[in-house]
Specification:
By secondary structure, the chain is of the alpha+beta class. The chain folds into 2 domains: 133 residues, Sandwich (Jelly Rolls); 107 residues, Orthogonal Bundle (Arc Repressor Mutant, subunit A). The protein is 47% helix and 22% strand. The strands form 2 sheets. Strands 1-8-3-6-9 form a 5-stranded antiparallel beta sheet, covered by helices on one side. A 4-stranded antiparallel beta sheet has the order 2-7-4-5, with no helix packed on it. A hairpin with a 2-residue loop joins strand 4 and strand 5. Helix 1 packs antiparallel against helix 2, helix 6 crosses helix 8 and helix 6 crosses helix 9. The longest helix is centred in the middle third of the chain and has 19 residues. The radius of gyration is 21 Å and the shape is globular.
Length: 249
Amino acid sequence: MNLKIIYHKHNRERKNIPPINSHILYFYELTFVLDGSLTYIVDNKVIELKTNDAIFIKYGQQRERKVQTSKTNYISFNFLIEEKLDFPTYLKNIIDNELKLAFLYYDEMISAMTSSTTKISNLLINIIEKLLSYQTKVSCSPLTEKIIIFLKENKYGKITLKDIENLTFFSSEYCEKIFKKDTGKTILKYFNTLKIEKAKELIIIGELSLSEISEKLGFEDYNYFSRLFSKIIGCSPKNYLNKWIKQIY
């Protein structure tokens, strides 16, 4: 992505947030409400943002923000980008743990005074790519949704196709057929991807060593975990950690 940061800010629970008068934007805006509320008017439509909501305002839209007297914690990015973005204006309850981690890195960069424009741009690109991945998710059959919930609940352990049969009362062959049709992946591949995505999160949090993360996620062999991580992410767990450290500092 070719992105240019115009302005960025983290407002930490300040009272009496001033209004923004109505005007046409000549950039894009992404604002995330971590706690509290904000009221926008975009193209004459009132949008009430609550905790974990976000707003995406396109280049050329008319924006106004009302005064906010209660404490509100929000992060806002103004930017230009060559790629076309078609997010809805109101992104309800969009902030998950991965986005919260991204905002944590943002704060760490600001606090450490290492927040170069390039680093902030790279972080925002990661956030936009995450939002794009949410947007491309398709609805699944009830059977697939049930299996996905089971996989997420057991990502720290092990599962077998027999477990899936006991869960669904269908044959593993039938479950695999429906699951792959809905997700494009086999059940095992989807399960391993869940584990590795969780591993990424744990690596970034930094409270566990790589071997401890491997063990926590149910891998008995660290070398197998490392190979699987490399296959799915494109680099080893150690290289992934080093990339994040370099991005922050």
